[in-house]
């Protein structure tokens, strides 16, 4: 980009890119903070080349910007690592400290003694909830949110007593890295620094040592790849067959492309077209001119619970038993594995909860039904 960045290399691509930067009014921070300092350094093919390639652009000014170019790091690339730091105008929110889900040692429920403790503890709490829920029948609009929270808390307490909480597993981000790889990388960086700060014939000797260190890093990476692949294959061959098939299914799904709506004008154009299309579809222009009147009736008194009520103990119990296992929980943190052992104790409480919502109809808030109908939404037969 020539004199704009203090670069000696001038190309047609750089000229076109410079014209685009100036036309859009972008700020190039390499010009302001690192003018004339090359970021790309190459000595291959017996020639020395340098240029400013990696750029930092912004649409608005930055607060307290500073740029640092790490010339003493090799990193196995001709591009030097560049750090641009600045003070954000709005501080980002802190990362969450708590795990988004409550976890328990559910595998302990396979032990008869632990299962008995869980059932006995849950039975006492759920029996008390049955009496509390029954008090709201035909009296006043029930606080469904509070009742749902009390139901979930009763199961939480029973799980805490029987199996205990489980701390979330910390994902290993550096599973591929090893001590041998780190030592090879450190040797490569030290040899590169020696080469940069040497002179005369010693510089040629340091360069040869640096090339040997780079070759050793490549061999170490290749060896580690073969090692991790063998570990992965051995794990698939020795672990439970269900886990193996799940792993293969996950790998296959990652290699399958999902159909997406694209446009030659770019993703923003595609998003705008899709938004316009959905706006047209749901605008109501396709509805018939003559439509029946709204039949919604706001009731002021509860509906009597008789044979017309769709919720019974047996229907709720059947729906719970049909819940699929090994599925992610909803916002209530409850799995099907938690409800199946205590289905006899849970079904009366949930039946009363469903009956209360059905009895008072529109008197309860729409958002309150999320918890109560979750089970029946999963059961397609109801």
From TrEMBL:
Protein name, as recorded: Endonuclease/exonuclease/phosphatase domain-containing protein
Domain of life: Eukaryota
InterPro entries to which the protein is assigned, alphabetical: Endo/exonu/phosph_ase_sf (IPR036691)
Organism: Phycomyces blakesleeanus (strain ATCC 8743b / DSM 1359 / FGSC 10004 / NBRC 33097 / NRRL 1555)
Upper taxonomic lineage: Eukaryota, Fungi, Fungi incertae sedis, Mucoromycota, Mucoromycotina
């Amino acid at each position: 980009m020539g004199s704009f960045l203090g670069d000696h290399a001038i190309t047609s691509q750089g000229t076109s890119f410079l014209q685009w930067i100036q036309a859009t009014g972008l700020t190039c921070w390499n010009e302001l903070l690192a003018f004339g300092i090359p970021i790309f350094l190459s000595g291959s093919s017996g020639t020395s080349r340098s240029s400013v390639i990696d750029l930092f652009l912004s649409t608005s000014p930055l607060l307290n910007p500073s740029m640092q170019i790490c010339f003493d790091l090799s990193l196995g690339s001709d591009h030097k690592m560049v750090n641009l730091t600045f003070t954000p105008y709005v501080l980002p929110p802190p990362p969450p400290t708590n795990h988004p889900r409550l976890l328990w040692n559910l595998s302990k429920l396979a032990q008869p003694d632990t299962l008995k403790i869980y059932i006995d503890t849950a039975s006492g709490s759920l029996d008390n909830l049955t009496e509390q829920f029954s008090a709201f029948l035909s009296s006043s609009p029930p606080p469904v949110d509070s009742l749902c929270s009390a139901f979930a808390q009763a199961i939480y307490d029973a799980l805490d007593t029987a199996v205990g909480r489980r701390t979330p597993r910390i994902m290993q981000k550096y599973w591929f890295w090893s001590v041998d790889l780190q030592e090879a990388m450190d040797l490569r960086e030290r040899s590169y620094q020696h080469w940069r700060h040497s002179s005369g014939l010693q510089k040629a000797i340091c360069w040869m040592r640096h090339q040997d260190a780079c070759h050793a890093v490549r061999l170490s990476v290749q060896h580690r790849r073969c090692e991790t692949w063998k570990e992965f294959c051995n794990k698939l061959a020795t672990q439970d067959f269900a886990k193996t098939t799940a792993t293969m299914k996950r790998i296959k799904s990652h290699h399958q492309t999902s159909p997406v709506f694209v446009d030659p004008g770019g993703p923003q154009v595609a998003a705008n077209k899709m938004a316009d299309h959905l706006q047209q579809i749901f605008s109501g222009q396709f509805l018939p001119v003559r439509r029946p009147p709204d039949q919604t009736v706001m009731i002021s008194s509860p509906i009597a619970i008789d044979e017309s009520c769709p919720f019974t103990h047996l229907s709720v119990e059947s729906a719970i038993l049909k819940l699929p296992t090994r599925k992610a929980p909803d916002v209530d943190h409850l799995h099907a594995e938690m409800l199946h052992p205590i289905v006899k104790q849970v079904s009366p409480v949930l039946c009363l909860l469903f009956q209360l919502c059905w009895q008072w109809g529109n008197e309860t808030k729409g958002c309150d039904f999320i918890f109560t109908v979750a089970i029946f939404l999963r059961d397609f037969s109801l």
